[in-house]
Design goal:
By secondary structure, this protein is α+β, with helices and mostly antiparallel strands. It has one domain. Helices cover 25% and strands 32% of the residues. The protein is built from 3 helices and 9 strands. The strands form 2 sheets. It has a 6-stranded antiparallel sheet with strand order 1-6-7-3-2-5, covered by helices on one side. It has a 3-stranded mixed sheet with strand order 4-9-8, with no helix packed on it. Strand 2 (51-59) and strand 3 (62-70) form a beta hairpin. It is globular.
């Protein structure tokens, strides 16, 4: 009887891991832009017309991230609540605002699909808040990114 119970629990555990692995396989990742896809934010600013550009945040003067989707790669990045950027001056303002908080400096990341394929770039300091999901081959959905934390300095916040 004990053997059957153990076998049952082992089978349930095995099936759970298999199901979890299948669910986890549809998510993309961010990696620091380097190597094959190495670029700088300046390179992207200079070639901004080669990308479909979107920002997340309250406004372009209060962004949490900016995303760059190469136009000619046959892949798509769909941002949930992300707003399009159609002017270089707006892009420059977004990049400037993202770099304004020295406590949370932004980094240029590559957006990679579940199999490691390159989809584009993201410039943000809120890396841990990014959720990237493959909704069909060649298309990734990027959820909205909340604003990064703010440091109001000593003495601010709640009195304790």
């Amino acid at each position: 009887m004990k053997f059957k119970n153990r076998l049952f629990y082992v089978a349930i555990l095995f099936m759970s891991f298999c199901l979890m692995g299948g669910c986890l396989g549809n998510y993309g990742t961010l990696g620091v832009a380097s190597g094959k896809w190495g670029a700088t934010i300046k390179d992207i600013e200079d070639n901004w017309q080669d990308y479909d550009i979107y920002y997340a945040g309250l406004s372009y003067k209060s962004p949490s991230a900016v995303m760059f989707d190469p136009k000619k790669d046959g892949k798509r990045l769909i941002g949930i609540k992300w707003m399009p950027v159609t002017e270089r001056s707006v892009l420059l303002t977004i990049v400037e605002w993202l770099g304004a908080d020295v406590n949370y400096p932004p980094t240029l990341f590559t957006i990679l699909g579940p199999k490691g394929e390159f989809f584009g770039y993201m410039y943000t300091s809120a890396m841990e808040d990014v959720v990237i999901e493959e909704i069909e081959p060649g298309t990734l959905k990027i959820d909205n990114i909340p604003l990064p934390p703010f440091d109001y300095g000593p003495g601010s916040g709640r009195a304790g």
